[in-house]
Specification:
The structure is a single chain. With 79 residues, the protein is an all-alpha fold. It has three helices and no strands. Helix 1 runs antiparallel to helix 2 and helix 2 packs antiparallel against helix 3. The protein is flat.
Length: 79
């Protein structure tokens, strides 16, 4: 798969934004804020991995997003 430089820059910027969201979760205090920040960051990383052709990384990010949503909505406590 041949990628042009513009696409490489775009998915690296998206990945940088996602990493920033994950980093921001380290300074937050409330559990819900932490989980929301991690979910948003992971969503950006999912898009970045998918554009880069890293489908296994994108799958792991998708699973992380689903896990974070279940924690935010407290669905995991019902099981």
């Amino acid at each position: 798969m041949v990628l042009n430089t513009r696409l490489i820059v775009i998915y690296n910027i998206i990945g940088f934004i996602g990493s920033g969201g994950i980093f921001m979760s380290t300074v937050l205090k409330k559990k819900s804020s932490i989980m929301k920040s991690q979910t948003i960051g992971t969503a950006f990383l999912f898009v970045s991995d998918f554009l880069a052709g890293g489908y296994s990384g994108a799958a792991q990010d998708f699973i992380g997003i689903v896990r974070n949503i279940t924690v935010i909505k407290e669905i995991h406590k019902k099981w």
